[in-house]
Amino acid sequence: MATNDPNNAHGLPAPDVKLAQCFLAVDDHDKALAFYRDVLGMEVRGDVGFEGMRWVTVGSPLQPDVEIVLEPPAADPDISPADRETIATLLAKGVLRGVNFTTSDCDALYARVEASGADVLQAPTDQPYGVRDCAFRDPAGNMLRFMQRRD
User: Fold this and answer.
1) What is the CA radius of gyration of the chain?
2) Helix (H, G, I), strand (E, B) or coil at 41
């Protein structure tokens, strides 16, 4: 069946696509696990070791079909030593990408995460684009932003 969507150049129905996993580099899985599980309340869905590396999969109980995979920096076994060092340096500086979350209570979440000793980047702030948000770095330096939609 064709569609009238001008963004669908092939005239085919849109595929059924949903996010399943995203990946964050972490340099200490035990610290990351304590943060994501104990502070943010995520479930541990997997903890796998392979060739001296470790991958821990976590997810919100509210989203059973979406997972965050906490992977070692430069997990590719074929990466050059120079590239591995560069990635570790960027992770330590906190300049790798992060994850945005939604929450129903930005201020309560902020208080909980701040009490854990996490690195605060931004206290709860009302943004002009309709959200109240705050931001932290996880133990590896990844930026995490928590947004609450304002009514």
Assistant:
1) 18
2) coil
- Which amino acid, one-letter code, is at 105? D
Integer CA distances (angstroms), 114 to 63, 82, 135, in order: 24, 35, 10
Convert the pLDDT of each residue in 82-104 to its tens digit: 998 898 888 888 888 789 999 99
Please give the Cα distance from 101 to 41 (Å, whole number): 13
CB 57 within 8 A of CB 104: no
Instruction: Give the global pTM.
Output: 0.85
Q: Which among 136, 150, 149, 148 is positioned nearest to 35, based on CA atoms?
A: 136
DSSP-derived letter for residue 37 is: I
